Structure prediction request, 475 residues.
Amino acid sequence: MSLRARIFLAMTVIVVATFILISLITIPQFKTQSDKYHSKRLERKEAQIQRSIAYFSNEAGDKKNIEEFDSILAEKIYEVSDVQSVKFSLYNLDGSLINSTLPKNEINIIDKELLSKILEQKDSKIIEITQRNDIQYRSSYSLIIDDNFNPLWILNLPYYDDDNLNSYELESFLIILGEVYFFLLILSIIISYFISQYMTKAISEIALKMKQTRLDKRNSKIKIKARSKEVNSLVDSYNNMVEMLDKNVKELSQSNKEQAWRQMAKQVAHEIKNPLTPMKLSVQSFERNFKENDKANEDKVQEFTQTIIQQIDTMSSIASAFSNFSEMPIQKGEKTNIVVAIKLALEIFKEENISFKSDEQTIIVEIDKPQIVRIITNLIKNSVQACQNVSNPEIKVHIKKRKDTVEIKVKDNGHGIPDEIISNIFEPNFTTKSGGMGLGLGMVKNLVMSYNGKIDFDTKLGKGTTFTINFPLES
Prediction:
């Protein structure tokens, strides 16, 4: 995942997680508050009823006994119920019903177990909670006491937890909260986009510059206003690396050039010395053996001249070989029938053991005709030399058209290439021949690559070598 995507995802997750967390906290909180609200409301109604009953009790005073109070309360509870807007039931201490404002099917019966619990807990009330028609139903039982804290009656107050209002408030709150967080989500997406752009711009540019870093060209530094200490440090490190890299590349390039020139100079000097030695010996021999009025002088002069000319030709060929290797071919963009061009290159060879085969008569490749001739000529020369001292030498040239390329194979059954020199076979000035300069295969590879081609070889000692060249077909 990219840094930009992580920033975007992190901000989105934070907003969504916050909404879920608030919802998970709010819903239980609403339920807790609703429960407290209903409990307090039940207590308030219970206290109001007890005060009203206590008021009637004080009015009657000591003039009436408890039975008379029961008959008075049996009538008065309707008045209390209307004033307090609450329906309730009143019981004697033995659990018998005095009167109730509730419908008959909702009047509770106090059994012995419940009665004992009520009488045992004088200072507190007993609340039974049940479910009726998916609504929570509370039934509160408490004692009504006189001024001397003596119990007189048992009050039963039923109460339904009507959560419609609370549910509506909770639903409204969640809807508003959802709308707010949806807006925050959109806002966070926009903000995270710009923040990620702001934070990752420098990093993206550094990554792009790193991808473009090359050893064969001058690399440009990053010129960007740092947005943080870390990014600034990264930019400075990259710029320092580029500066050191360019410096090292220059030094390495200069060192390679100097090394190449030293090697070339050494090779040239070595090759020039080879013909100079026989030239010197020929001059010394001619000087010793030359005698005036000698009838053989003419033959000696002719022999001497031929020797000198032969060595001069050798030196000339050395100079030409080095010149050809150093020259990059000037591409004219010529479209060549490579089958005809290779046939032309093979005509200069008189060896009868060279065979040619092509799957097609016309294969057009964008390559200059003289250069393909030079490539094939060099490869055939190498094959001819590799087949020396072989009883039945064979050199085969095969052209085959592939999907997008043309494949040229030059195969011989010569001695093969030893393993220890395979890695150096295309190196300039590397040769295993006593009279060679090691520029042929180096020049061939140079030419092939200049036309976007590829060259490779396969060799086995004692069985021969196959060079394979691939050129792209004309598009």
